[in-house]
Amino acid sequence: MSPTDLTPPLVTSLVKDAVTAPSMHNAQPWKFVCRADAGIIELHGDPLRGMPHEDPDHRALHLGCGAALFGLRVAAAHRDRHAEVRLLPRPGDPWHFADVELHGPDDIDRDLVELHAALPRRHTSRFPFTEEPIPSEVTDALCAAALLEGCRLVLPGAWHTEAVLGLVHDSENFEAAHAAVREEIAAWTRTGAADEGPGTEGIPSYAFGPRQYDVTSPIRDFDPSRRVTARDAASFEKRPRIALLGTAEDGPEEWLKAGQALQRVLLRATLDGLSTSLMSQPLEWSELRPVVRDPASTTGFVHMVIRLGYGPPGRATPRRPVSEVLTFD
């Protein structure tokens, strides 16, 4: 595909689809640069949108940008373009995450075309799910989706699930005792108060979900101080179905791959009628993250715990306008 084909309308439409990706606290830590003369769309991480207390190594930031990169690939395939990706193309610039070149339709992954319909429908659901079991053919497809991105998705058994949920509750205690972490989370929540950040980012109160009625909820409570008084209380599923997304190694390239795998799994789950939410709490603490993995598994490092089930799909959270995250050079 020639560089002149990277027209502003095309690139803008691709990025608009890409930024539907999930990111920690909906911080949207990505920047895109279109270099039309070179025929390249660059993806950069934005360190100003990092979480220094919850994500000091920027692992979650890379995951979010990787998810946006996968969304760009899906959007390109939908428009009969094949996106060729080079990760970390400049070793001297750790915030230059990827270069993307667009080519013609000959090498398009038709599975990506199918996933495009899920981009506007995938939302995090912090609501209770039913106890309905997920068919094995559905979970097998999710595991296959992760493998296509060079990652592994493991569905833990009963004892391991209980152990992970225990770590989620341990992380809640850690969080409650860490004032800086609580302040960081509060900075990315939106309850309508006058001193909050822009409404185009962060977690709005309508996406908090109900308060837990008991202690089984695996969902982070974004409003522990009860600033939002109209939230209902609900009982969550007693046996949450979770999946662990991981890689054999642990570094920026693996984090970007895991982010792409995460978005591929979430989009596949959406098409298969599942609701999803992300449980990163125990992965945010160096004391807890190594214990999340199954010691018998070949997955060396877990990057995300995904909650799966049948239930309310959740609502879309706001996104910054494309003009704030895309520049043309």
What does this structure look like?
The structure is a single chain. The mean pLDDT is about 95. Strand 3 and strand 4 (about 95-105) form a beta hairpin. Helix 2 (about 60-80) packs across helix 7. By secondary structure, the protein is α/β, with parallel strands linked by helices. The chain is globular. About 40% of the residues are buried. The chain has a 5-stranded mixed β-sheet with strand order 3-4-2-1-13. Strands 5-10-12-11 form a 4-stranded antiparallel β-sheet. It has 9 helices and 13 strands.
Task: Quickly list its features.
329 residues, alpha/beta, 5-stranded mixed sheet, 4-stranded antiparallel sheet, 9 helices, 32% helix
List the helices and strands and how they pair.
Elements lengths: L7 H11 L11 E6 L4 E6 L13 H20 L3 E6 L8 E8 L6 H6 L20 H13 L3 E3 L3 H19 L2 H9 L1 E2 L12 E2 L6 E2 L20 E2 L6 E7 L4 H20 L3 E5 L9 H4 L8 E9 L12 H4 E3 L1
Parallel strand pairs: 1-13, 6-7, 8-9
Antiparallel strand pairs: 1-2, 2-4, 3-4, 5-10, 10-12, 11-12
